[in-house]
Amino acid sequence: MNTRMRRAAVAVAATTMAVSLAACGSAKESGSASKTSGAAKGDDITIGLLLPENQTARYEKFDKPLIEKKISELTNGKAKVIYANAKQDATLQNQQVDTMITNKVDALIVDSVDSKAIAGSVKKAKDADIPVVAFDRLAEGPIDGYTSFDNEEVGHVQGKALLTALGAKAKDGQIVMMNGAVTDPNAALFKKGAHAELDGKVNIGKEYDTKEWKPENANANMEAAITALGKDKIIGVYSANDGMAGGIITALKAGGFTKLPPVTGQDAELAGVQRIVAGEQFASVYKPYAPEAAAAAEMAVALAKGEKLDSIAKEKVSSPTTKDIPSVLVPVVSLTKDNINDTVIKDGVYTVAEICTPKYKAACDALGLK
Q1: Cys-Cys with 218: which of 86, 244, 281, 363 at CB 3.0–4.6 Å?
Q2: Collapsing DSSP states into helix, strand and coil, what is residue 134?
Q3: How far, in Å, CA of 352 to CA of 370, rounded?
Q4: DSSP conformation class of 38
Q5: pLDDT in tens, 121-175
Q6: 170 CB contacts (<8 Å, ≥6 apart)?
Q7: Where does the chain have alpha helices with state H?
Q8: For residues 270 and 239, is the Cβ–Cβ distance under 8 A?
C-alpha cells in the first residue's frame, strides 16, 4: 500500500469517527456559528439546503435524502429542512439564499453553482447571523464549515486509472482531456491531480474545460477533438465525470471507433457503472456520499445551535477569500469492473437488479454480478 493510499485509509477511519460525534462547545470559539445573542437553540431548528443542479443523479437521489435523514437523526426529528435546487443557474441560487435569509433559517448548507458568484450571498447570510456550510464545492465568502472529498486525490485516481488502462501503449498516440466547468473549484483540483499523474507519461492532444459539466457539451468537444486529431490517433480520454463520459462515448461511437479507447469518469452514476460492466467505460471514481452528507448535517446542526466544530472537522481548508475553514475531507475509491461488488453494491448504492438490467445481464454474469 503506497503512502497516498495509507493516508486515504487513515482518513476514512478518521472521517467515520468524526461524523459520529456530536459537536459541543462555545459559539465564541474558532469554527463556530456567528450567532451569539439569545439562548442556545435546541433541536427545533431550521436548516436551508441548496443544491446546484439536477442533471447529475447524485444530488436528488443521494445527497438530499441523506442530509435530510441525518439532520432528522441529530435533532430527534424536530428540525425542519427547507430545500431548493438551482438547476445550474447561479443567479437563481443567489435568489434562493435571499429567500432562506427571509425565512430566517438557522444555518445553510450550500453546494454552489458558481463558487465566486455565491460569495456575496454567503456574506449576506453571515450578516444575518446565519452560518453557512459549503457542501461538496468550496464556495467563496465567509464560510463557517466545509465538507467534500479529497478532490485533488480524485484527479490522481482518475489519471492512474487511465495510465493503467493504457499500459505500455501510453505514448503510442494522444489522449483527450475533458475537464469540468471552470465555475466549479473542484474541477480545477481534479485537473491538477490528473495532470500530476499524466504529464510526461502521455501525449495530450486536446484539452477542454466543459461548460456547465453538460454531457452534450462534452459530446461536442469530443467530436471536435476527433476531427482535429483523427480517430486513429486517440488512444484514451480523461473524462472528469460520468455524465460527460456518456457524451464522450456517444461521440466516439459516432466517430467510427470500432474499439473504444479507455474513458475515465467520476461519481459512480448508474449509467456509468453499467458502461463499466459493458466494457464501454474503463473506470469511475466512487465517492461514498453517506459520510460527506453526515458531515454536512453535523456541521449545520452544530452551527445552528451555536456550537463549535472542533469534534467534527479535523482539517482546515482555505478558499481564495477565507483561511482555515474547519473541514471534513472524505477519501475516494477507483471504481472498475473488478470492484463493483465491493463498492456500490456492498454499500447499498445500487442493487444487482438495478445494474444488471436485461441489456447488461450477460456482461454482469461474466463479472459474477448476481
Answers
A1: 244
A2: strand
A3: 6
A4: S
A5: 999 999 999 999 999 999 999 999 999 999 999 999 999 999 999 999 999 999 9
A6: 163, 201, 202, 235
A7: 3-19, 57-58, 64-74, 90-102, 119-127, 151-166, 185-198, 215-229, 242-254, 270-278, 289-304, 352-355, 361-367
A8: no
pTM: 0.79
Q: Say if residues 154 and 332 touch (Cβ distance below 8 Å).
A: yes
The C-alpha atoms of residue 277 and residue 336 are separated, in whole angstroms, by 8
Cell digits of residue 191: 485537473
List of residues 6+ apart from 196 with CB closer than 8 A: 155, 156, 159
What are 146's strand-pairing partners?
134, 327
Q: Any idea how long the chain is?
A: 370
What does the block give as the cell for 175?
Answer: 489522449
Joined grid coordinates for residue 298: 453535523
- Copy the grid coordinates of residue 316: 482546515
At 333, the amino acid letter reads: V
pLDDT band at residue 23 using 50, 70 and 90 as cut-offs: very low
How is residue 12 written as a grid cell? Answer: 476514512
